[in-house]
Design goal:
alpha+beta, 2 domains, eight-stranded mixed β-sheet, six-stranded antiparallel β-sheet, 3 helices, globular
Amino acid sequence: MKNRIAAMIFLMAAFTAIIFTAISCSSDTTTGTTVTTSEAPAVYQKIYGATDVYVEGDYVVIKSNGRPEHKSPYYLGTQWQSSLYEAYNGPNPNFVLNPNRITEFSMTYKIPLNPAENTSHPSTPMGPMGVALNGVAFFNQYAGGGAPLTNEINSFEQYGGHPQQQGQYHYHVEPSYITSIKSDSTILGFLLDGFPVYGPTEHGETVTNADLDSYHGHFGVTEDYPNGIYHYHVSTEAPYLNGDGFYGTPGTVSY
C-alpha cells in the first residue's frame, strides 16, 4: 500500500513538472534554444489593452492589436463605425479629419525588463517608439518626413490621436482618454527602452519642460516605483512626449 501511494505521489510530481515546463518555456526556432517565460511584474499588468503580456528572458513582451478602445471620428467608414464612431468634439477649431482610417495590426513589443541609461541616447524611430496602456502606439514629436507637428497636430482628434497612411492609430501627445479615465498623474505606458511614461502632473503639480531633461524625463519616485526610476512625462509643449532620443536602450517592435 505504501509503495502504491509513493508511486502515485511520484507520478503527480512528474506531471506537475511537465505542465510547469510547458507553461514557462518555449522554443526559439531561429536559434534552437529554449526561452524561459514568466508572468510580468504588476506594473505591466496595467497595460489593459494588451492581448498578452509576459516576461521572456530579459524582456517584457507586450502584444497588441494597436486599435484604440475609445471612440474616434477615424472609425468613420470602418467595420467598427456603428459602435465606435464619434464626430470630432474637441477644443481645436482648426481640426481637419485626415483621409486615413483606423485598422488593426498584430504588434509585438519587446522592452527591457530592467532598463538602464544608454549614454549614447539612440534616436527615436519614425513609427512606434512605445506603447500606451490601451495598446496604442506612441510616436515621436515629428510628422512624416521628420517635419514638426505644427500642421499635423490639427488632425489629432479629441483623444489626442490619429491614424497614419496604413491605418495605424497612434499618439504623439497626451492620450487624453487614458488620463480622463485614470488621472493626470497616472502611468500611461512605456517607451521601447523600458522606461515608463507618466501623465502631465506629478505630486499635484503640472510638469513643464523646465522640470525635464532633454529626453523629456527625469528621475523620481512614482506610485509604481517607490524606490524611484527615470521616467518620461507628457506635456502640453513640444516635444510633448519625448525629446532628443531614448534615455535607455530600445527594444524592438514587430508586426
